[in-house]
Amino acid sequence: MNIAANPMVEASQTIYLKDYQKPSFLVDAVELDIQVYADYTQVGATLKMQRQTAGDLVLLGRDLELKSIILNGTELSESDYQLDSEQLRIANAPDQVTLETIVIIHPESNTQLEGLYQASSDLFVTQNEPEGFRKITFYPDRPDVLSVFTTRVEADKKYPVLLANGNLLETGEAGEGRHYAIWQDPTKKPSYLFACVIGDLAVMKDHYVTSEGRNVALEIYAEEKDIPKCKIAMQALKHSMRWDEEHYGLPYDLDNYMIVATSAFNMGAMENKGLNIFNTSCVLADEEYTTDAAIMRVQSVIAHEYFHNWTGNRITCRDWFQLCLKEGLTVFRDQSFSEDLQSAAVQRIDDVAVLKAHQFPEDSGPLSHPPRPDHFVEINNFYTATVYEKGAEINRMMSTLLGKEKFRKGSDEYFRRHDGQAVTVEDWVNALSAGSGVDLSNFLTWYNQPGTPKLEVQGEYDAAAQVYRLNLKQSLKSNAKYPNLKALPIPVALALFNAETGEQYILQSEALVENSVKDGVYLFDQAQASIEFSGITAHPVVSLLRNFSAPVNLEFNYSNDELAFLMQHETNGFNQWQATQTLLERILLEEHAADTYLQAMKNTVPALIEKDPLLASRIFDVPSEGYLGSRIDQNYQPEKIQQQRNALLDTLARELGAFCKETYLSLDPDMQQDFSQAMGVRALKNIMLALMARQGDAKAFELAQQQYHTTRNMSERLGVLRVLVWNDAPQAKAALEDFYTRFKDEALALDQWFMVQASHPKATAETIQALTAHPDYDLGTPNRIRSVSGGLNSNPVNTWSFGVQHFIDLAKYLDEKNPIVGSRLLQVLSRWYTLAEPQRNQVQAALLNLQSVVKSKNVVETLNSMLEV
Ligand code: ARG
Ligand code: ZN
């Protein structure tokens, strides 16, 4: 079925990787003069350019009002250039060009939050990745044009803070109550890394001395009242700087590093050179206002943006098809950082849970694409779980295979070869191969192919010969757009346990890869293979894909008892957790009985709570309804999944009975030495209380109310607010009112207030209606939209009933106002075609309807792909 409304229009706008051409001109230096006024901004630009190849001089520009243009001293008239809505083109330009332009732009009415925009009454910021700079001035706005930027920013003195990348050269008076600052960034960079900030903000200052002895001034800018909430971010920044020196040999290279927080931001944060701009949700962190999960996220995003300084900024992408070069590698780096911050196993559990909940469904539906796509209409649509998370997995696989030392030799070689360049995925894999001495070129297949491979494994034990054999087979679902799918190199980390004693065998097999990791790793790179282990004295239980060594769907015919065995005996915390998840998927999707799982929980949990409360809290994970739904490819009935899952939780609550109350009362987060275990205790307490409430224990509400009023910690407060609200406890209304009063001036905490209500298990269309009609609801703030929409979407029964219209209306409204966010929200409906009738038809009709009214490349491309199933 292909029902794309206007494939011609889309086809003509498609950009292909194979068409890449070098830019005809390079920019040696650029001077910007940005003058901000209340109702317009004037941008002057002087570009010193040099010809590189034959062809017209092409400058990209969108929504710019051109006032004047001077080439090598001569003012051009309209007949000297061609100007359309996307570019300015000059034919027969000389080889050396100095081009001066003046344009007028309107940040004060820019709702798309791209380019320069007014984020609040006291703040203007930029977001230029990937293609926002062309909304500021005419420029060869592409990542393979690197230049030295000098920026003059001028504004009214009611905005005391004037920032741009690099070093501050000069400040001064500009008359009529105005002032200016001039900044220069000595490092050559592409335009997407340019940033400037004009505003009235307070600042937290600190400093850091690099391994080379450079004293770096660190500054975090935020609203005055939020400055105390910047401590955790500042600590994380210093920690990241040290971590990159120790693990990759990469010190910071400028004398200052600035972070600016804004509540109006489309994404998480942006790595602009020396001047990161962050969504407040990824920088403000304080126990009283922020949940533990959000605090962990702040630390990982701070690290992520910092790590981009080398993987992204010093070495950047040749073109946007290579986005996963910088994002996949940087996510892998921030995940490794977070593994060092808390428990490595739990960090891995959380990262894999995200991968499976977002990337796997994306890759099995109509929006599936290779980590390095080969075509796109709107590159903003490709900041996806596949580019980021699957991109990270590819790097993790190569690192697992090489082991730490060789991986480091490979990355050293990459920085040695390519510092200061704009490169491709091939350059990365080649450098990694050359530096490590291991040929990794077949990993390029992972970058170039879509889809999650299926890995089918069978085990055979020959007791007489004491040999255990594994037969492996890999396959990919055929894909019309990618007809020649190749076998992928899949590192399979594995262990064998003696089923009788529970002890782990020391593996003897020539098939295993030699690396510095202590796990046995087998590199499976054929369509089929068999491997043998000798000296296996008693029947073994095999644990496969330890630590999730490859992003694949594993099929192995474990008995439920073997999975219960792994829950108790596996020493790899990740695979211990994975065993619970595999059991639960069988119970919830294949209607297996729950008894083995319940018994294994009773056997495992008490000791684990003593030993590792954080891991214990994850052992209680039950796959979400959304994730379970994504495992179903046709005739999906969200209500059925909901009933199954609720029934399982009811049984778990009943079976654990008194244990929940005892455990709740015995746990005290303040007794824990470190933050991560205290976080585990808080999570466990909330789980215990939720299970008590499920048993109908009225004491649960009393305890919840008590905890609500005695704690100062957001995870504790929000955990019990959920218990009260989601169970319609008599105390719920007062608690919600109290929460609102306490936090009405704290936007991020208020987001949680919206979210708790939107994700009420029995939320109705009226619930959502009331929330979106609330005076604090704001369609101009992506965080607030996401708090309600995300809450709604935590219940797929709602998503696929009244939620369909909710998401379609948002896409329609945001199509013009903020197409980046509009397109993202629409993606929630991408698996519509898996629904059972009549829902499937209804959603399809609604999507077709939307197709006739939307115009942005973002929403149109997403919608067309969604309908091409
Ligand atoms: N490079 C940023 C990061 O990953 C994300 C920027 C996304 N921007 C966008 N318009 N999609 O840290
Ligand atoms: Zn990034």
From TrEMBL:
Reaction catalysed by this enzyme: Release of an N-terminal amino acid, Xaa-|-Yaa- from a peptide, amide or arylamide. Xaa is preferably Ala, but may be most amino acids including Pro (slow action). When a terminal hydrophobic residue is followed by a prolyl residue, the two may be released as an intact Xaa-Pro dipeptide
Single GO molecular function: aminopeptidase activity
Transmembrane segments: none
Domain Aminopeptidase N-like N-terminal: 42-193
Domain Peptidase M1 alanyl aminopeptidase C-terminal: residue ranges: 561-867
Listed NCBIfam families: pepN_proteo
Chain ranges of the Peptidase M1 alanyl aminopeptidase Ig-like fold domain: 451-556
UniProt-recorded name of the protein: Aminopeptidase N
EC id: 3.4.11.2
Family statement drawn from the similarity comment of this UniProt entry: Belongs to the peptidase M1 family.
Domain Peptidase M1 membrane alanine aminopeptidase: 233-445
Keywords: Aminopeptidase, Hydrolase, Metal-binding, Metalloprotease, Protease, Zinc
Cofactors demanded by this protein: Zn(2+)
